[in-house]
């Protein structure tokens, strides 16, 4: 992995990225000028799950290569701000528990699922989900059922196994079918 930061222009804050050799972002953090942190591991009210959608061209002017330690330092500070919530979410979702949630986003690590009732972020294997249903169900708001398999401490995600995507969407009542 490589670690870079960018200060695009005044008023846009500082952007941090963890990228693979092809430039695909795995983690991203923006620290706005007012101190607000927008991290790719959590849903933001304005930016949803913010992660670069295209590979980052590391030859682009203005990008600064940083050490893994520098990146992990800013990432860890961001995680600390949600640490109490994370501990509570793990307590609410013990390993082996059956859960349900809705597809939110597709990341290199897998499919992000917002778990019902708690808002915790679950991570399901995208390949497993694709095998479980029809291709046109692999879209945001489709319901996923799974079992809690463990915890991703680096991203504060509930790791899901035995995941399957359903025809039902969260914007429908259970008795409705899609149009």
Task: Give a quick summary of the entry.
The chain is 17% helix and 37% strand. With 179 residues, it is of the alpha+beta class.
Order of helices and strands: EEEEEHHEEEHEE
Spatial strand order of the main sheet: 4-3-2-1-5
Q: How many DSSP H or I helices?
A: 3
Can you count the beta strands? 10
Distance between the termini: 43 Å
Explain this structure to me?
The protein is an alpha+beta fold and 179 residues long. The protein is built from 3 helices and 10 strands, in the order E-E-E-E-E-H-H-E-E-E-H-E-E. The chain has helices at residues 68-80, 83-92, 126-132; strands at residues 2-6, 14-19, 25-31, 37-39, 64-65, 98-107, 110-115, 121-124, 142-152, 157-169. It has a 5-stranded antiparallel beta sheet, with helices on one face. A 5-stranded mixed beta barrel has the order 6-7-8-10-9. The longest helix has 13 residues, at 68-80. The protein is globular. It starts with a strand and ends in a 10-residue tail after the last strand. Mean pLDDT is 92; it is low at 173-179.
